[in-house]
# Entry
Amino acid sequence: MRVLTVVGARPQFIKAAVVSQALQGAGISEEIVHTGQHYDANMSAVFFEELDIPAPSHNLKVGSGSHATQTGAMMVGLESFMSSREGPDWVLVYGDTNSTIAAAIVASKMGLPVAHVEAGLRSFNLRMPEEVNRIVTDRLSTMLFCPTQTAVEHLAKEGMWNGVHMSGDVMLDATRTYSLRAADRNPLKSITSLDKDSFYLGTIHRAQNTDNPARLAAIIKAFSNLDAPIILPLHPRTRSKLDLSAIGSRVQIIEPVSYLSMLTLITSSIKVLTDSGGLQKEAIWLGKPCVTLRDETEWTETLSRGWNHTTGADTDAILSAVGTSPEGEAPRFGEAPAGSASSEIVRLLSG
Ligand code: UD1
# Structure
């Protein structure tokens, strides 16, 4: 069996790392194509090095652009690449980025079966580009690997049953695999001079927040009024929208960090404040409460017992949620039916 994996953005490298290892373990040949959506060394190369992901055989070097420019350039590059090769048994795509939808459209029009890891996620907010990417990719996929039963139910409501599998969440595999290494290889003192449990951890990168000055200002105002400093590894999109000189010293801006460093920061923080999808889950799996800087979350399981709160970009709501403690144990979600999600995915692909 031959698998062609298409990745392009930071969270996809993390998900692909654990599935690649499982494919290798099963003796399945995998070729990786990088669209070049993320290209800075600290947004791309560091993940391949640190997570031992096989080097991509091809990088389309698409880079930044509007949605149409970026997705269109990826489609042209992927069509040319796929036409130059014998068709793989599966084209494997991850998540909800422009790289995901570009690969799904090209492969399906070339008659190549698409397998979608992280299928069935819905925010029910069509103004999110990621929601459009999810819906189209799911519709075009032959095999749909859902991280949770909620995701399976979303697909059923849209009339999709064939090829739908509750595989468990590959991000849980990654969190488990790499958090063991993180403390040794990327200790807190290599990232910040702040002590464990003395800071919050924040991230902001969603277009709804970064491209709306009022929302971004309200989030930064909340960050500046926390009862402890907040470390903010800043995505380039957000950096380009902020006047860094106007931000107080309690908000400690650092460059984007590697995955192992991120895991160290999560486990060392008081709480996590984020508009990321993956970080919400990682926080809770690692026992840290989360405040989600969005109006909704796809990961509704995280909201259980007050472990996660959606606050939008409302300064008072953010500060109030930060002051609230969860009740009871952290919710459990994303477990595979047996073994790990990545081994389950490889088993299903091989079937
Ligand atoms: C993308 C995904 C989002 C995912 C996120 C993870 C889409 C629509 N969105 O958002 O679902 O959660 O990746 O980070 O695909 N930039 C750089 N250097 C880089 C990469 C990006 O400077 O290495 C800048 C560029 O100015 C670019 C902007 O960041 O225009 C946004 O990048 P883009 O690839 O459009 O989407 P993300 O915001 O990263």
The pocket of uridine-diphosphate-N-acetylglucosamine is lined by residues 9-11, 37-40, 43, 64, 96-98, 129-130, 205, 236-237 (CB under 6 Å).
